[in-house]
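Hi there,

I know you've been waiting on this one. I reran it after we fixed the sequence typo, so this is the corrected version. Both the input and the resulting structure follow.
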Amino acid sequence: MENKKNPTMAVFAPMTGKVIALSDVENYKDLEQEGDGVAIVFEEGTVYSPVSGIVLEIADDKKNFFKFETDEGLQIMVYLGSPTNRFDVSAFSVSVKVGSRVQAGDLVAEVDMNKLSMMGCEKVAPVILCGGVEGLIIHPGTVHVLAGAGAVLTLEDLRNATPEEIAEAEEKAAEELAIALGKPVPKKKKKTKKKTSTKAKKENDSDTETEAEAEAEPETPQEKRKNKIKEAEGDALAFLKKPGSILKIGLALLVVTVLMVALFVAIFMFMQGN
């Protein structure tokens, strides 16, 4: 695997030919239940290992089925022809045994193309991922692949990715696969924003204010006096800015002046009387 944030691993083409969808192959409905993958309409009879690992299984009777397992636990099946075809074992020359260790691109078997034609067998090679694919996203390779050289599939490891990255990668992979196989491109899912209720928003704002107050440092006595003076000045300025404030102050001063004059007159008359 490559040293990337999301590592990738190539599954090489076991045979040379055109890549098609599994659904386009006759009599492969049962195989689709085994896992995801593609099929190759092969043009040559040489079969190579798609990955490095061990040969886990070979069909005993027909010699047209191989299963491989990588050191990471990924399992891949490669079929030659349709399971419903009648095969002559002499059409296959197998170069490996069960348990053999192989490298990607090693020769596994050779197929007699003329005998396949005489037997009426389909020249297709399904490549199916049947195990160890949890957390992996499948990306398609090229439309035409070369045996043992071109990647028929690329697997992206998203086991350490975020849910958003996984969703984006799955959407991208589905789109790439559809384009590569000439299928309709799936519609992209609309992203919806989670709405927050007014009540919840108020509660969140209240919580934020409470947290801010809790985090504020305690004021010193000097700071408290300064803040009170500033508050008083602010209240006075706010009062003066209100309409009619000056008139009210003038009337108040007039009333106070009249009361003072009346008080002095009363005191003067009292003293004259005595």
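Quick highlight: The CA atoms of residues 95 and 108 lie 5 Å apart.

Best,
R. S.
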